[in-house]
Amino acid sequence: MIDFGAIAQQIFDAAVGALGEGAVVVETSARQKAPVRRLFSDGGHSIRFKSAGEIEADRATRIQLGLGPEQQSGPHRARTAIGAHPPVHWRERRMSAANALLAQYDAEMSSRKGGNVPVKTMLTRRGASEVRTKRASFTTWQHLGIGGRLRGEIYSTSPSVSGGMAEAWVISPTPYGKYMEFGTRHAAAHPFLRPALAESQGDIVSRIAAAVKEASRTQGSDTVIDIVVRL
Amino acid sequence: MTSVAPIKRAVVQTLRASPSLVSAIVGGIHEGIAPRKIKYPFIVYQLVSAPYVYDWSGLMLHTMFDVSVFAENPVDANNIDALIGSALNEAVLNVDGQNSMLCRRVADLPTGPDIDGEGKRIYQVGGSYSIWTNQ
């Protein structure tokens, strides 16, 4: 005797679980697409000769890596790049790291006033202002950082079931989130939630289909159930 | 393979093909954001998403556009939005290199009044349009 009720419940539970996974996929994609305040310069760099101290400091590492010694003079004199790519990791947006970059920025600005050759700093002028005023400070994972509030606050809910239907939400609770999603008179839209959903639809459908298929198989009967999942 | 650019052109062409809509929008049609000194009312359209869907027979583009009206009073904004809806909803777009399969209004935008740079109260009303093409 086949208990179709139990099979249906098992399949539905599997689909709900997969829907929860799908919501996390959309959340991850939305986080990647959410615009983040631009604090750092493009990280242009230039090349200069290494000092004797730098060559000495790198010697042990080079030996470890099996590289030859660097030359202090002549046409093959050791060079190094100054400046770097802008920081992309959360830890580099932390207030402590940003304050160090602000000190670097201030030193560079006073050096430029003194008529010295400008060197690109990591913070943009706007970034320096943001760090100084702490206007865009935002706490994430118990660390105070600069920018990234929109991205940091996006979350997905667990699927809720009512009346044979399940739904999961991906929410951006940031007050200015809707202005970023839909645009205003003053600023163009930077949609991040709807594109995340549109691009993840195929993934969500295949997750649910796979979960349903698996659930119908593990019942241990010979019954073949053909199920089509649409979103 | 053609991208989303011809679809944008087709959307603007369809909007411009409606004489009542053209006479109602003094400030014209803009992509993304309108210049600062432009006159009201005007239309802004924005591509939201355009995932490519490959199947055995070719390629489909499932694009979504937001089309909004900015006007100085809510009546104008809603009237022009209705004109946009009647111009685009169920329209057969003339997209270069692609076959128009569907153009349908799928949502209203949850936008509200705003204050512009000159302190005027501005009403933003619009909708999302789903456009499917294949090639």
Q: What brief labels describe this structure?
A:
heterodimer; A: 231 residues; mainly alpha; 2 domains; two-stranded antiparallel sheet; B: 135 residues; alpha+beta; STM4215-like; seven-stranded mixed sheet; 3 helices; 24% helix; 41% strand
Account of the 3D structure:
The complex is a heterodimer of chains A (about 230) and B (about 140). Chain A has about 230 residues and is mostly helical. Chain A has two domains: about 100 residues, no CATH class; about 100 residues, no CATH class. Helices cover about 45% and strands about 10% of the residues of chain A. Chain A is built from seven helices and eight strands, in the order αβαβααββαββββαα. In chain A, a hairpin with a 2-residue loop joins strand 6 and strand 7. The radius of gyration of chain A is 27 Å and the shape is elongated. Chain B is α+β, with helices and mostly antiparallel strands. Helix content of chain B is about 25%, strand content about 40%. Chain B is built from three helices and seven strands, in the order ααββββαβββ. In chain B, strands 1, 2, 3, 4, 5, 6 and 7 form a seven-stranded mixed β-sheet that branches. In chain B, a hairpin with a 5-residue loop joins strand 6 and strand 7. The radius of gyration of chain B is 15 Å and the shape is elongated. The N and C termini of chain B lie close together (about 5 Å). The mean pLDDT of chain B is about 90. Chains A and B meet through helix 7 of A and strand 2, strand 4 and strand 7 of B.
Principal-axes geometry of chain A comes out as elongated
Q: Biggest interface, which chains?
A: A-B, 16 and 23 residues
Q: What would you call the quaternary organization?
A: heterodimer
The total count of strands of chain B amounts to: 7
How far apart the termini of chain B lie comes to 7 Å
Name the poorly predicted regions of chain A: none
| Integer average pLDDT of chain B | 91
Shape of chain B: elongated
CATH class of chain B: Alpha Beta
Query: Terminal Cα separation of chain A, in Å?
Result: 33 Å
Class derived from helix and strand content of chain B: alpha+beta
Helix content estimate of chain B:
10-25%
Report the average pLDDT across residues of chain A.
81
Can you tell me the CATH architecture of chain B?
2-Layer Sandwich
What is the number of helices of chain A?
7
Radius of gyration of chain A: 27 Å
Estimate the strand proportion of chain A.
5-15%
Number of domains of chain B: 1
DSSP helix fraction of chain A: 40-55%
